[in-house]
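I hope you will forgive my troubling you with a question about protein structure. The record follows directly beneath this note:
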Amino acid sequence: MMTKRAIVLAIAAFAFAINDARPAMAQAYPSRPITIIVPFAAGGTTDVIARILGEHMSRTLGQQLIVENVVGAGGTTGSTRAMRANPDGYTIELGNMGTHAASVALYPSLAYNPQLDFAPIGMAAGLPVLLVAKKDFPPNDLKEFATYVRANADKLNMAHAGVGSITHFTCLLCNRKFQAQSGAAGRADLGGGRPSAIPGISLERLVRAQGDAEADPRQAQRRARQGDR
């Protein structure tokens, strides 16, 4: 049975895979537009990366690459769509740690097996994760932040991009490292990683991928919590 061609995207590896294919297939592919499934909302880090790569690959391959955002269940809805697509190389996916690693532990009834149903070809991007907070948040560095969280865990809210996402696991890691009461702090699921998706919620701390933080104009009103250098 042919391996599902819902692949984790990387330009160099993708080009290598094409060149390494049989001559007849290399001549014919691609003969029509390719769909890139992004399992997260438009405007988030994964979406931005997919659009940048898609634009470059469109020029390189001579065919349009169409980004399709399929959101839900921490990215597993989009990954399931990609897994069920026709394995002809015209549907690929830009997945991440959440969709193809954490999801296995978080969702017992996961519809796909990342090891069997996907053909990964390489790393597309790597981004630091930042802790950011509103401008008047008392701590000035990571050490002060840890102390403040331990003393005020039941009063603070934190936000992330969704259960199983990198930022979600960062929140859990912070709680463990800071010895905070993990059940006390409220968590908000951000569509695409954007605070604007949760009206009416005041966030004391927010875990975001660097791309999201830098793209948000309101970042100028926040201080990045990167700790002492």
Summary: The beta strands are 34-38, 65-69, 91-93, 129-134, 157-160, 186-189, 205-209, 222-225. Residues 1-21, 182-186, 194-204, 217-229 have pLDDT under 50 and may be disordered. The longest strand covers residues 129-134. The longest helix spans residues 45-61.
